[in-house]
Amino acid sequence: MARTTDGEGTPVPQRLLAAATRLFAERGYDRTSVQEIVEAAGVTKGALYHYFGSKEDLLHEVYARVLRLQQERLDHFARMDAPVERRLRDAAADVVVTTIDNLDDASIFFQSIHHLSPEKNKQVRAERRRYHEQFKGLIEEGQESGIFSRATPASLVVDYHFGSIHHLSTWYRPNGPLSPREVADHLADLLLRALRP
């Protein structure tokens, strides 16, 4: 994206995404107008359409930016020169922390995915599937080497872990008793305990 900025030096695309994320989280995607987004971002509709073709493109980018971050981090963990148990635990904890750090984005996505066009919906699902397949690959690597139990299929273990993550937006509160790292550690430990032979 171009680095056109406002008077304070914030790139316009970032201002638009920040405004859209806040409004979508507060009001819902379908109850937020393009006019409200551009007013909150302090830009014109022309600026929005210069960087994003539509409100739907903003919704897609809200989720895509988190998934890109998580995919980059999973790639890093998968390539680490470390035992598979350590790589899986680090990846399992990291996806929890990055989801909590971007809780509005995750919440918006799960509440609003049905607003995406079939083409964009298919694209997002393919990107998520790539992430889940790579995560599953770490589990399978451990199962094949005998470090992890084969009793539960790797795909079901993945669904178990990500089912917990997808519900974070319904119960996690920043001012609650557990920090993001503590939640991440507990969920990662539960995952590894489920895989022990």
Summarize the structure.
The protein has ten helices and no strands. It is mainly α and 197 residues long. The radius of gyration is 19 Å and the shape is elongated.
Description:
The chain is mainly alpha-helical and 197 residues long. 73% of the residues lie in helices and 0% in strands. It is built from ten helices and no strands. The protein starts with 11 loop residues before the first helix and ends with a helix. The mean pLDDT is 92.
Overview features:
197 residues; DNA-binding; TetR/AcrR family transcriptional regulator; transcription regulation; HTH_TetR; mainly alpha; 73% helix
Query: How would you describe the shape?
Result: elongated
Percent helix among the residues?
Answer: over 70%
The number of helices is 10
Mean pLDDT: 92
Strand elements, count: 0
Q: What Rg, in angstroms, do the CA atoms define? A: 19 Å
| Ends apart, CA distance between termini | 48 Å
Pfam family, one: TetR_C_24
Keywords: DNA-binding, Repressor, Transcription, Transcription regulation
DNA-binding region: 33-52
Protein name: TetR/AcrR family transcriptional regulator
How is the topology of this model organized?
Elements: H1 12-27, H2 34-41, H3 45-51, H4 55-79, H5 84-101, H6 103-112, H7 118-144, H8 154-166, H9 168-171, H10 180-195
Domain HTH tetR-type: 10-70
InterPro entries: DNA-bd_HTH_TetR-type_CS, Homeodomain-like_sf, HTH-type_TetR-like_transc_reg, HTH_TetR, KstR2_TetR_C, Tet_transcr_reg_TetR-rel_C_sf
Pfam families: TetR_C_24, TetR_N
